[in-house]
């Protein structure tokens, strides 16, 4: 596939699922989200010189943008480690852990990670906290344009129930930026607490987000601090 081949008609949308709230679970549906997101970014002038791959690839950080592979590494439920299963169980409780997994790692974080791909390859430079918050803002704004607010509201409910089960955020200023790598490797519960807070911040302001403005901010070369 040639670079830019994902560009399609303006204003095309993903299938609307306003009656049955279900996260995407198959690689085909995840690829459809990726295609639609890249189409929308291209409409705002953000076009990569390559087409990112969606790869089922379970890593310690669960989902991530892998620059060296030019791929979004998407985790598979059956391949999760005991530590990863324990974290999801801690967050969501028995019977809801796989639902949380599907909503976050097989749906919501797909445009989030593709935002990191755009930022990395098109000149954006933000500190880690600002980059994570911005990627979540973009994911929420994208899904609002896709008219799947009901799914965002369901994710909001799940995460609000999960947050009290995670460690409190440290009072230390700039802790997330200073300990970003350490948390990702050795303290997934605390990292999850931060990321859950970031996602909820984005969902709470969903009606006031402009995807075009967020795309412009994404490729701004100035380092920024996290927006409250």
The arrangement of helices and strands along the chain is: HEEEHHHHHHHH
- The structural domain count equals 1
Number of beta strands? 3
In whole angstroms, the N-to-C terminal distance is: 40 Å
Main sheet properties? 3 strands, mixed
What would the principal axes of the Cα set say about the shape?
Answer: globular
Counting DSSP H or I runs of 4 or more residues, the number of helices is 9
The side-by-side strand order for the widest beta sheet comes to: 1-3-2
Helix/strand class = mainly alpha
Percent range for helical residues? 40-55%
Low-confidence stretches: 1-12, 14-21, 222-228
Q: Quote the beta fraction.
A: under 5%
Average pLDDT for all residues = 88
Radius of gyration: 17 Å
Structure description:
The protein has one domain (27-218). Helix content is 53%, strand content 5%. It contains 9 helices and 3 strands; from the N terminus they run αβββαααααααα. The chain has helices at 27-43, 82-92, 97-121, 128-145, 149-162, 175-178, 180-186, 188-204, 211-218, and strands at 53-56, 64-66, 71-74. Strands 1-3-2 form a 3-stranded mixed beta sheet. The longest helix has 25 residues, at 97-121.
Secondary structure layout plus pairing:
Blueprint: H1 27-43, E1 53-56, E2 64-66, E3 71-74, H2 82-92, H3 97-121, H4 128-145, H5 149-162, H6 175-178, H7 180-186, H8 188-204, H9 211-218
Parallel strand pairs: 1-3
Antiparallel strand pairs: 2-3
Tag the structure with descriptive keywords:
228 residues, mainly alpha, three-stranded mixed beta sheet, globular
């Amino acid at each position: 596939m040639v670079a830019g081949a994902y560009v399609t008609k303006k204003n095309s949308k993903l299938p609307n699922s306003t009656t049955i709230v279900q996260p995407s679970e198959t690689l085909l549906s995840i690829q459809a989200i990726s295609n639609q997101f890249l189409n929308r970014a291209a409409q705002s002038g953000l076009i990569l010189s390559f087409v990112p791959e969606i790869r089922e690839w379970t890593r310690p950080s669960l989902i991530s943008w892998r620059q060296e592979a030019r791929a979004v590494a998407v985790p598979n439920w059956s391949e999760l480690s005991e530590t990863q299963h324990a974290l999801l169980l801690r967050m969501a409780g028995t019977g809801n852990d796989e639902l949380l997994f599907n909503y976050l790692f097989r749906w919501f974080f797909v445009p989030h990670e593709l935002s990191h791909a755009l930022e990395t390859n098109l000149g954006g430079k933000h500190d880690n906290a600002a980059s994570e918050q911005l990627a979540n803002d973009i994911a929420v704004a994208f899904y609002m344009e896709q008219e799947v607010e009901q799914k965002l509201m369901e994710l909001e409910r799940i995460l609000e129930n999960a947050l009290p089960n995670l460690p409190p955020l440290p009072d230390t200023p700039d802790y997330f930026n200073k300990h970003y790598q350490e948390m990702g490797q050795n303290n997934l519960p605390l990292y999850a607490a931060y990321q859950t807070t970031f996602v909820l911040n984005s969902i709470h302001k969903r009606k006031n987000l402009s995807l075009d403005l967020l795309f412009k901010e994404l490729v701004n070369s100035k380092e920024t601090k996290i927006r409250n």
